[in-house]
Design goal:
Elements: H1 8-33, H2 36-50, H3 59-82, H4 84-111, H5 123-129
Helix pairs in contact: 1-3, 2-3, 2-4, 3-4
Length: 143
């Protein structure tokens, strides 16, 4: 039997089902946003897509990017609807993580070493001292 959208009972039943699914999705999202790991996960998926440009010279790629952005905007709308205070907390935590990464990177370059692991392979030094040998034939792209 085909779906009759002119029938008020059918339309109301579909609206009730849609509302139940929306509330269930909201509960899942709110539970995920209660944890630090959940907020970090959502930010990694949402932040780079929602706040980036969808522009691409290739119209098909741009259309794809816009579609992905619309999905991210839908998730953003759900977060603001179901747990707005968690969204601001998520943004604060993401900013703190960014700053910690920047501090860590600037400390590594200030020390002048190769990073936290001093035993890290230094290809230039090892090539110069003969610890590493590279077989290479003129005209080949592979080293």
């Amino acid at each position: 039997m085909p779906l009759d959208l002119n029938d008020d009972k059918t339309v109301k039943a579909l609206e009730r089902a849609n509302k139940a699914y929306s509330n269930e999705d909201g509960n899942v999202l709110a539970n995920m946003m209660k944890t630090t790991a959940g907020r970090a996960f959502v930010w990694r998926k949402l932040g780079p897509v929602l706040f980036a440009s969808a522009f691409n010279e290739n119209p098909y790629s741009m259309a794809f990017n816009v579609g992905i952005q619309r999905q991210a905007a839908g998730l953003f709308t759900d977060i603001v609807k179901y747990c707005p205070e968690q969204f601001t907390l998520m943004m604060r935590e993401a900013d703190e993580r960014e700053r910690a990464i920047e501090r860590s990177l600037s400390q590594d370059t200030d020390r002048g070493d190769q990073g936290p692991d001093e035993r890290q392979l230094d290809l230039y030094r090892d090539l110069a001292t003969g610890r590493i040998e590279v077989e290479w034939e003129p005209g080949s792209d592979a080293a």
